[in-house]
Amino acid sequence: MNALDLLLNRSSQPRLQAPAPEGEVLENIMQSALRAPDHRCLTPWRFVVCTGKGLNRLGDIFQQAAILADADEAVVTRAAQLPLRAPMVVVAIADYKEDEKVPRVEQIASTACAVNAMQMAAVAQGFQGVWRTGSYATDENVKRLLIVNPRTRFWVFYIWALLQLSHCRNPLECHSSFSHFGNNKILTNK
Questions:
Q1: Fewer CB atoms < 10 Å away: N or C end of the chain?
Q2: What pLDDT, on a 0 to 100 scale, did the predictor assign at position 165?
Q3: Whole-number pLDDT of residue 6
């Protein structure tokens, strides 16, 4: 798959199935994150790769957070099962580092770019993934249980194998998202 096809045809795939990436494929996915834009080389991210019993451990953390939030029994029960929807969950953590030239928003954007690079690397190697950011991604109890600095932000990112898609996505209409400056006037696509 060439780079442009990859970018134009990527889409989130909600059907989760094994196997998870491993070995060189997983190493490529992790290495791709390290190529994200990173002003002043702060590496403002951490990733926790959960597989096997690690998925159960993450589910236990979600469940403990639900209990601490006095959630009803159905929510507490469901919380433990959430990570088990995929054979691998990568928890992406935007680990803010105090810096006079690199504001928090830029460090969060850098982390998001790293996650996007991982997803593109997964797709390039025949895997699919999806971002899932539920309430646990910003839950203070989850942060504490994961031993994450309270100033951080994090997201949950699932990766799993899927059969190759047999069709390309239809082109998306981008005109409403872009404006152009040119010839001393603003050009719009309306």
A1: C
A2: 46
A3: 86
Beta-strand relationship, 127-132 and 153-161:
antiparallel
CA atoms of 124 and 126, how far apart (whole Å): 6
| Packing angle of the helix pair 104-124, 23-33 (nearest 10 deg) | 150
Helix/strand/coil for 144: helix
Backbone angles phi, psi at 40, to 5 degrees: 65, 15
Q: List the chain domain ranges.
A: 3-188
CA angle 10, 11, 15 (to 5 degrees): 130
Q: Which residues of the chain have pLDDT under 50?
A: 162-167
CATH topology of domain 3-188: NADH Oxidase (3.40.109)
pTM: 0.83
